[in-house]
Amino acid sequence: MMKPSHTFAALIIAWFSVLGSIQAVTLEVKEGNSTCIKAELSASFSITYNTSNSTTSVSVPLPNSTTVDTGSSSCGADGRSPWLVAVFGSGHALGLSFTTNGSLYSVANLTLQYNLSDSSFFPGANSSDVVTVVSSSVGIWAPINSTYRCFSPITFKVGEATVTFSDMKLEAYMPGNDLSPTESVCIADKAGTTAPPTTAGTTTVAPPPTPAGKPEQGTYSVNNTNGTVCLLAQMGLQLNVSYFSRSQNKTIQALVNLVPNVTNPSGSCNTTSATLTLTEANATMLSFSFTLNTTNNKYHLSTITLQANWSDMAGTFSVGNNSLDYMRSTLGRSYMCNAEQILEVGPTFSLNTFRLQVQPFQVTTNQFATAEECQMDQDQMLIPIVVGAALAGLVLIILIAYLIGRRRSHAGYQTI
Ligand SMILES: *[C@@H]1O[C@H](CO)[C@@H](O)[C@H](O)[C@H]1NC(C)=O
Ligand SMILES: *[C@@H]1O[C@H](CO)[C@@H](O)[C@H](O)[C@H]1NC(C)=O
Ligand SMILES: *[C@@H]1O[C@H](CO)[C@@H](O)[C@H](O)[C@H]1NC(C)=O
Ligand SMILES: *[C@@H]1O[C@H](CO)[C@@H](O)[C@H](O)[C@H]1NC(C)=O
Ligand SMILES: *[C@@H]1O[C@H](CO)[C@@H](O)[C@H](O)[C@H]1NC(C)=O
Ligand SMILES: *[C@@H]1O[C@H](CO)[C@@H](O)[C@H](O)[C@H]1NC(C)=O
Ligand SMILES: *[C@@H]1O[C@H](CO)[C@@H](O)[C@H](O)[C@H]1NC(C)=O
Ligand SMILES: *[C@@H]1O[C@H](CO)[C@@H](O)[C@H](O)[C@H]1NC(C)=O
Ligand SMILES: *[C@@H]1O[C@H](CO)[C@@H](O)[C@H](O)[C@H]1NC(C)=O
Ligand SMILES: *[C@@H]1O[C@H](CO)[C@@H](O)[C@H](O)[C@H]1NC(C)=O
Ligand SMILES: *[C@@H]1O[C@H](CO)[C@@H](O)[C@H](O)[C@H]1NC(C)=O
Ligand SMILES: *[C@@H]1O[C@H](CO)[C@@H](O)[C@H](O)[C@H]1NC(C)=O
Questions:
Q1: What is the distance between the alpha carbons of residues 117 and 90, in angstroms, rounded to a whole number?
Q2: pLDDT (tens digit, 9 = 90+) per residue, 25-65?
Q3: Ligand 7: which of 144, 171, 173, 174 to mutate, most ligand atoms within 8 Å of CB?
Q4: Residue 15 reports pLDDT greater than 50
Q5: Statement to judge: residues 168 and 249 lie in one domain
Q6: Is the CB of residue 90 below 6 angstroms from any atom belonging to ligand 4?
Q7: Averaged confidence pLDDT in the chain
Q8: Choice from 220, 223, 279 to test ligand 9 binding pocket (greatest atom count within 8 A of CB)
Q9: Pair 371, 263 in one domain
Q10: Which of 302, 307, 357, 400 is buried most, with the most CB atoms less than 10 Å from its CB?
């Protein structure tokens, strides 16, 4: 994984390039006089390369002058995948290959080729290579005979580069020569209701995502390389984020719940650390890392990072902290906290957890081991005990008072 600071720098660069020099291009792949792939999009690339004494990042927008390479592009005759290859500048190219199963089509892989000898893009590069990087399963898909639409920026990591698309409309396996009127809207656009139609140059933007009440509890797990579950988690998660809202033109604080049924877990486990990454709808990525101290066999949650790219945000929001000390528990046990916990991560982000149970190490038979409960739960369990004890005390006092009273009145009768 990239260092958070690098990721952040890359994202900032991507953000400025998106805001700064956004240009929409239209690309078409034809066979004879019928169009099979059409894309209207803006794109920018953030590329990391080495100079003689350091490593730098540049941001390159897909220029207006981009054209389709008719030699490499194809509509996919004789069993090959349809392929859109767009070329720009001095030996740079962006490729999208498609696949379909009859009812859905998707981008099978995203290819970026860049020519480090082009000093206008890569000043001071210590290499003159033409680098080709490929990413598969980018998650761009739509039903056949519909147009994939994503106005929100969506970012993909491809080798040493990141590719950000925005204002995108795309269709492959087209039934006609123009984009189908039926649109399949990406989840990033749905997350903040509708995204801005920036093509018209207007400044209307989406409202911020609406907060809900308590978040729903999700169940997430991470598998070992050998397929056994190595991390188990059950929790409701709520993000408390301060960010600059495009719709309100000011920094706002938003409470946003993670919705379990559109959130996918991934991650990895080894002997002293375990990571769970939750990705919601390509627009939110929340990551937890647990660390085991083998000296005392205690573990804790040491890192939380959040990357968000909601349509109301002016750019990608990225916060992380790797020196946290939350959810302390013992190896072989799980950690449980039913009460709401507020985990401060940074000045612009805290995470609220509800009905939580996690076990990052030594999970056997897909089940939680005995739990160590958080202090708040223990305190809450104490309340009924304290109340019960107080009530018992009160009953005892009343009883004693009654007995004393009775004895006194008996004594009174005897004197008469
Ligand atoms: C394709 O173009 C040829 C001539 O170039 C024309 O005869 C034919 O009708 C066209 N087909 C369609 C479907 O437009
Ligand atoms: C940059 O140089 C470092 C070593 O100095 C190397 O590990 C890394 O792979 C290089 N990166 C690229 C993009 O060539
Ligand atoms: C390399 O480092 C030296 C000093 O260490 C600096 O003067 C020079 O400008 C650097 N070169 C590049 C290409 O950054
Ligand atoms: C890479 O860029 C250099 C310099 O601009 C150019 O001479 C060369 O032809 C380019 N390579 C390719 C494969 O286009
Ligand atoms: C295509 O893939 C989708 C999702 O995997 C699936 O729901 C659908 O049934 C598949 N269609 C066919 C014809 O296989
Ligand atoms: C890109 O996707 C196509 C279609 O699935 C596949 O045949 C090809 O091998 C992929 N290319 C790479 C470099 O992964
Ligand atoms: C897509 O549209 C074409 C032409 O309108 C039609 O022949 C085809 O059956 C449609 N395919 C699907 C999967 O709806
Ligand atoms: C594979 O699973 C076993 C438990 O069934 C576990 O002890 C072992 O560490 C796992 N191996 C790897 C490489 O994760
Ligand atoms: C993890 O393993 C379980 C079975 O142990 C399996 O059902 C599940 O699909 C696996 N998940 C992933 C992401 O591989
Ligand atoms: C946003 O606010 C700033 C100052 O607060 C103002 O200058 C700017 O015009 C506003 N932009 C929009 C689009 O309302
Ligand atoms: C997710 O769950 C909500 C309610 O909990 C439901 O309304 C929605 O349809 C579900 N979405 C999917 C994709 O299952
Ligand atoms: C592990 O625990 C021991 C004993 O509590 C402590 O002295 C040590 O600093 C801890 N190590 C780390 C890396 O936190």
A1: 9
A2: 999 999 988 999 999 999 988 888 888 888 787 878 899 89
A3: 144
A4: no
A5: no
A6: yes
A7: 84
A8: 223
A9: yes
A10: 307
The pTM (predicted TM-score) of the whole model is: 0.48
What distance in angstroms lies between residue 104's CA and the mean position of ligand 5's atoms?
A: 7
Residue 397 lies in a domain: no
CA-nearest residue, atom 4 of ligand 5: 104
Q: Does the CB atom of residue 366 touch ligand 12 within 6 A? A: no
pLDDT cut 70: percent of the chain above it? 86
Q: For the range 3-7, what are the long-range contacts, defined as Cβ-Cβ under 8 Å and sequence gap of 24 or more?
A: 4/305, 4/318, 4/320, 4/322, 6/48, 6/57, 7/307, 7/318
Is 187 found in the same domain as 39? yes
Q: How confident is the model at residue 12 (pLDDT cuts 50, 70, 90)?
A: very low
Q: Which residue has the tokens 């890359």?
A: 10
Whose C-alpha lies nearest to ligand 8, atom 4? 228
Nearest to 230 by CA among 180, 292, 184, 146: 292
Q: 57 to each of 50, 60, 219, 328, 342, how far by Cα in Å?
A: 9, 10, 38, 38, 36
Check whether residue 231 and residue 342 sit in a common domain. yes
Q: Is 405 within a domain?
A: no
Is the same domain home to 74 and 173?
A: yes
Residues 6+ apart with CB under 8 A from 381: none
Among 5-19, 147-161, 199-213, 277-291, where is mean pLDDT lowest? 5-19
Instruction: Count Cβ atoms within 10 A of the Cβ of residue 80 and give its class: 0-12 exposed, 13-18 middle, 19 or more buried.
Output: exposed
Residues 360 and 254 in one domain: yes
Judge if 183 and 226 occupy the same domain.
no
Token pair 């509890």 in the structure block, residue: 217
Predicted local confidence at residue 258, as pLDDT? 94
Give a yes or no: residue 177 inside a domain: yes
| Closest approach atom of ligand 9 to CA 265 | 13
Model pLDDT for residues 274-308, shown as the tens digit of each residue: 999 999 988 899 999 999 999 999 999 999 989 88
Are residue 225 and residue 183 in the same domain, yes or no? no
Percent of the chain with pLDDT over 90: 50
CATH of residue 114 = 2.40.160.110
Residue-number span of the structural domain to which 286 is assigned: 218-375
| Structural domain count of the chain | 2
